[in-house]
Each structure stands twice: as C-alpha cells, then as structure tokens.
C-alpha cells in the first residue's frame, strides 16, 4: 500500500534521514519509535509529500508520491505534532473551513463534522473557541480535522505530546478504535515506548536518521532474549557508581535513570552479589532491585547506548 | 481561494483590534497635523528683543502677518520660554532687528514651513535696507513696492470652483495622504503576516495537503491583505472628504485607482519582506523600521518638495509611497492630465510585480 525506498533528506549539511526503507500494508498499525531528533518527523513529511526527499522514493499503490504528490493526498490524513488550528475560532468553524478545503459542503459536511466531533468526544464543546480548550481537547480536535475527509491512512506525529494521562488514554483508545474497528491504516510516531507497544502491530526504531531495528514487539525484544535488565533504585544519585558498574565483565550496558541505574546483563549472570559489593564500596544505599524482561526501551538502550528520552 | 479569503475575514471579525487601532491612529494623526477646520492658519507666538524699538516691532509684525498661512501673535519672553519648555506650545519666535531664533519644544512638521517663511521675510527686508543704503534714496522702498504691485507678468492658477491655488503645500492634504498611507503599511503587512503565522502553526501544511492548490492559498491571503489595506485608505479618504471637507479633488474615482495601485505595491512589498525574514518576530521588528523610513524619505511625513539632499531624493525614487503621494497630490490639485498620473501609477504596478515575484520565490525556497 505505502512504501518508502532508501529515503534520504539532507538539510544544508545536516543529514536528517538516511536510507530509510519501510512499508505499510492496508489496515496495519505501524509505529515509528525514536528519540527527539531521530528523523521521524522528516520521514513522515516526506511520506506525506510535504518535503521532497534528497534521494529515494515514496510509493502509494505503486505510484511515486515524489513525482506526483497528488496520488496520496486525497487518501491521507495527517495529524501534525503542533496544534494546527485557528485558535481564535470555534471547533465547528475550524472543521467547517478544513471540510470546505477538502471539497465537503452542505449536508455531507455537517454529517462528517458531527461524526468526528462524536469520535473525539467534543460534541458538547463544539461551539467553544479552540483557545479556551485544554491541551488534551486541542489535541483531540487536531485529530478530528485530519479525519474529516475519511482518509484511508492516517499519519500521527507525536499526537500526545504535553497532555495529561487521561487525555492521552482517550487519544490512544481512539487510535485503536480507528485501526481495529474502522480498518484505518495508521502510521504512529512517538518517543513514548509504551504508546507504540500498545498501538502498533509492527515497529520501526529510528536513531540519527536511520532505521536501526524493525519488527513486531516480540521480534524486537527477542534481540535481547539472552539478556535481562537489572533496575537498581538508589537513595540518591551516585555518578561515580556508573563507570565501576560498566567495568564489570558481565554488564553489557549501564544507564542512569531518574531513581538509580539500569543494567543490561546476560541472563542468569549471577551478577547481583558483585553489584552489591560495588554499591557498598561507594556507601550507596540500594532501595530496591528489580530483574525485568527486556522492553522496547531496553532494546533501544542496547542498540544505541542511550535512553529513548535522552 | 474563496475559502481561504473568507476564513481570514472570519478571523478578522474575531480579532479586529489591530485594524481598528490603525484607523484610529490614522485619524488622530491627521487631525493633529492637518487640523479640523477648513482654514489652515498656523499660529506662531512671537516676542521681540529688547533692543528693538516700538516702530521696528510694528513694522516686522505687520510684514510677518502679511501671509494668510501664518498668524503671528505677541507673547511675553518669559512666558514663551516657560511654555515651550513645558511643551504647552510647540514653538515660539524670538525676533531681533536683523535676525531671529526659534524655540522648539519637540519635532513638528510645521517648523520647516515657519522657518522658511520667516527667513524669507527677513531676507526681503534686509535686501530692501541694503538697497536703501546703497542708493541713499528715501523713496526707493515706496518705488519698489509700487513696482511689485504693478508687475508686467503675474502667474496665477485657479481651480474649477474658483479658489486660487497659491502653489504652496497644502498641509491638510499632506497630513491626510501621508498619515493614511503610512499607517496602512502596518495594516497590510500585519494582515499578510498571517501567511508566516500559518506556516508556523502548521495550518499551511494542512491546506497544502488538501486538494486546494498552493497558488490558491497564496491568492486568498493576498486578496485579503489587499482588501483590508484598500478599504482602510478609501474609508479614511472618503470620510475626510465628505465629513470634514478636505480638498482631495473632484475625481474620487482617480483617488480609488491610485489607492488600488499603492495597496498592490505594499502587499507585494509585504511578500518580499516575508520572504526575506526567517521568523514572525523578525517581521514584526522590521515592519516599523521599513514603514517609518519609507514614510520619512518618501514624503509622507513632510512634503518631498522640501527635501534638497540628492541622496535622499534618489532613494525616494525607489519607494512606492513617493509615487502614491505624487499621484494623490496631483489628483487633489485637480490635475487631470492622464499621462502625468499614469507615470507614478505604472511605477507602483511595476514595483508590485517585481516585489511579488521575488517575494513568493523566496518564500517557496524556504519551504
């Protein structure tokens, strides 16, 4: 349905996207996971025909989007990262304008507006000015605009940035509903691992403009099938502890977390006693120890040596 | 294109403050600089130096008040100095037998006219005194006066309603045209800055991804900026012509035509500025600089006829406001010579086309 081949984008001398190839089948929900600056937004800008690639191609049903941007536009809904709305107007006025821009009018426009307002749960507040909405409500109407013309595929660029957990949950449920009940193809970008884990059938992990891993959640975590994650909670930060733990032979990676340290080690490495010894030497108080099955976050850590939200 | 245009009007309806404020500022400045009444006499407080005797004072006051454009009235020296210092009066003249000085509270467009006029009176008087001294003829002054009153050739021009045109500068029209054109620059470019705002907020990309063509989106914005600027100028001109009796000429249609050409040129200039700046903040910083310097050099603040500096005059030749002022003054003086009017209007259109082309090109390169 949608495919990119060796996509590359250079801004002046900065290589933003390098050799990215991915595909989406009809009805799939695909995640693009990576930290800020990984090249996710540039990739989706090229897919949606807003930015011309320096090299490579994007095809929609076999037709080149780079040569004919029009081939994808009528089937595509894009939810940008920013609130792309006229905040001095009401939700209805925004929807009416964008509906007209997509050629909707009269009864068809009214019906579509009612439908998307119901979907995003803003029917009661439809006549309020967007600037008076909460952050979560603005995000929801931002999504509603992209759904007005009933696109076949929706591209969502970090649609939950900066909102409360309740609104985030509402949006995630809505995306699941669109994908599972309405069969809409979804390309979802985020740096929140848990969102991508929850929503997506397949995941592309990006870093420094490249796709560094791809597969289902199970396939990706199996990269670390021979490893486990030890999460240490400490009473306060001990920066000097990190280098000594990293020097331990069995430790593959160490990263500081908000409350302590995270270590990626071989399974059943019997490392804990050595960890306690190092902690004791530094008079570090260990509050808790947790041995976990690797997550996507750990996969990213394993592949790049950095956290997703660095 | 229609949807984009109507949307901008809808947004204006929600937030009309800027346009209303610019119109209020325009009207306020016109009244301040041009005055309300039909007469446009400039009052000038004056005090004489203690060295002058009463007869010299009477003669000089009589000579100064010979012009209808100025009204010189006596004021006490201390009172004048105090009131100028406090800003209660903008200026006062300290007259001596052979020279004068001007006390000024703040910059004012009338200084130049007063200074020019008083200097001329002094120069004429000193010349007469020199002639009296060199000829030693006590009747020479009377002879000259008599000859001047019976000149062999006299130049006069009249308007259709019979009012004589002195050939001088009409301060009221200067204020009306200058201030209206000046403030309209802000309204037009601020209206156009919505393009940059839309690109920043992402609504521009939403439109680009829709079936609407990019040129239609541009056209919607350009038409809106044009309409707002055009209406602002025309409403103010019509208001001052019909409500306050300003003499903007008989042909209001020609005024409308000149305004349309000027508005087009400023919309195009706005596009060029949008293409040159990187952010909306930069644009907001640049607009006052461009508007004020253009108004100063282009003859919106004071008549270009008073400027003698060749560099400033050369720069004024590339500014649209110069040609708009020229065209409007011609129309106001009821000069219906089409070729004379066609030249400034053609230059405005040419300026507009060039700036528009470069501006859109620069904006597209930034995408």
From TrEMBL, chain A:
It is found in: Cell membrane. Residues 2-233 form the ABC transporter domain. Pfam families: ABC_tran, DrrA1-3_C. GO terms for cellular component: plasma membrane. Keywords: ATP-binding, Nucleotide-binding, Transport. One of its GO terms (biological process) is daunorubicin transport. One of its GO terms (molecular function) is ATP hydrolysis activity. The keyword Protein transport does not apply. It is a peripheral membrane protein. Belongs to the ABC transporter superfamily. Drug exporter-1 (DrugE1) (TC 3.A.1.105) family. This is ABC transporter ATP-binding protein.
């Amino acid at each position: 349905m949608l495919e990119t081949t060796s996509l590359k984008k250079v801004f002046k001398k900065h290589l933003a996207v390098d050799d990215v190839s991915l595909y989406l089948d009809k009805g799939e929900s695909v995640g693009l996971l990576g930290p800020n600056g990984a090249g996710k937004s540039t990739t989706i800008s090229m897919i949606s025909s807003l930015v011309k690639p320096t090299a490579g191609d994007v095809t929609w049903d076999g037709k080149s989007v780079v040569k004919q941007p029009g081939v994808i536009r009528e089937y595509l809904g894009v939810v940008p990262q920013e609130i792309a709305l006229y905040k001095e107007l009401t939700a209805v006025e925004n929807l009416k304008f964008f509906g007209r821009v997509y050629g909707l009018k009269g009864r068809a426009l009214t019906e579509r507006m009612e439908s998307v307002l119901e979907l995003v749960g803003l029917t009661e507040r439809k006549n309020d000015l967007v600037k008076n909405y909460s952050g979560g409500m603005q995000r929801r109407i931002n999504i509603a605009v992209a759904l007005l013309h009933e696109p076949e595929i929706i591209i969502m660029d970090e649609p939950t940035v900066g909102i409360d957990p309740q609104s985030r949950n509402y949006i995630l449920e809505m995306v699941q509903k669109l994908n599972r009940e309405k069969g809409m193809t979804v390309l979802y970008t985020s740096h929140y691992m848990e969102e991508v884990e929850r929503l997506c059938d397949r995941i592309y992990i990006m870093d420094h403009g490249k796709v560094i891993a791809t597969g289902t959640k199970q396939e990706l975590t199996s990269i670390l099938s021979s490893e486990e994650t030890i999460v240490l909670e400490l009473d306060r930060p001990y920066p000097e502890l990190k280098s000594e733990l990293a020097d331990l032979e069995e430790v593959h990676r160490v990263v500081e977390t908000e409350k302590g340290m995270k270590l990626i080690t071989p399974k059943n490495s019997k490392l804990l006693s050595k960890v306690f010894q190092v902690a004791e030497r530094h008079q570090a108080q260990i509050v808790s120890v947790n041995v976990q099955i690797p997550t996507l976050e750990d996969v990213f850590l394993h592949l790049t040596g950095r956290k997703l939200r660095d | 294109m229609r949807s984009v245009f109507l949307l901008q009007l809808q947004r204006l309806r929600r937030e009309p403050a800027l346009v209303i404020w610019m119109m209020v500022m325009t009207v306020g400045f016109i009244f301040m600089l041009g005055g309300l009444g039909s007469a446009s006499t400039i009052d000038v407080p004056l005090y004489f130096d203690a060295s002058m005797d009463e007869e010299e004072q009477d003669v000089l006051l009589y000579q100064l008040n010979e012009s209808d454009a100025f009204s010189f009235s006596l004021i006490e020296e201390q009172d004048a100095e105090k009131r100028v210092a406090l800003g209660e009066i903008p200026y006062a003249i300290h007259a001596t037998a052979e020279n004068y000085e001007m006390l000024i509270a703040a910059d004012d467009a009338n200084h130049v006219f007063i200074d020019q006029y008083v200097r001329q009176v002094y120069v004429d008087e000193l010349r007469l005194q020199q002639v009296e001294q060199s000829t030693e003829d006590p009747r020479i002054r009377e002879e000259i006066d008599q000859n001047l009153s019976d000149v062999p050739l006299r130049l006069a021009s009249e308007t259709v309603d019979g009012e004589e045109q002195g050939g001088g500068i009409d301060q009221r029209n200067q204020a009306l045209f200058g201030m209206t054109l000046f403030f309209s620059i802000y309204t037009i470019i601020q209206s156009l800055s919505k393009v940059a705002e839309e690109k920043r907020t992402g609504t521009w990309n939403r439109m680009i991804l829709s079936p609407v063509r990019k040129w239609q989106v541009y056209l919607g914005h350009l038409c809106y900026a044009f309409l707002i600027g055009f209406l602002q100028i025309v409403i103010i001109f019509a208001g001052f012509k019909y409500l306050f009796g300003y003499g903007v000429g008989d042909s209001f249609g020609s005024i409308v035509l000149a305004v349309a050409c000027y508005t087009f040129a400023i919309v195009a200039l706005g596009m060029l500025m949008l293409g040159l700046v990187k952010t909306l903040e930069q644009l907001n910083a640049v607009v006052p600089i461009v508007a004020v310097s253009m108004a100063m050099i282009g003859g919106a603040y004071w008549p270009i006829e008073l400027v003698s500096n060749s560099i400033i005059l050369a720069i004024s030749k590339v500014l649209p406001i110069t040609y708009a002022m020229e065209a409007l003054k011609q129309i106001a003086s009821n000069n219906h010579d089409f070729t004379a009017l066609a030249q400034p209007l053609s230059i405005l259109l040419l300026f507009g086309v060039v700036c528009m082309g470069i501006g859109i090109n620069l904006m597209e390169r930034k995408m």
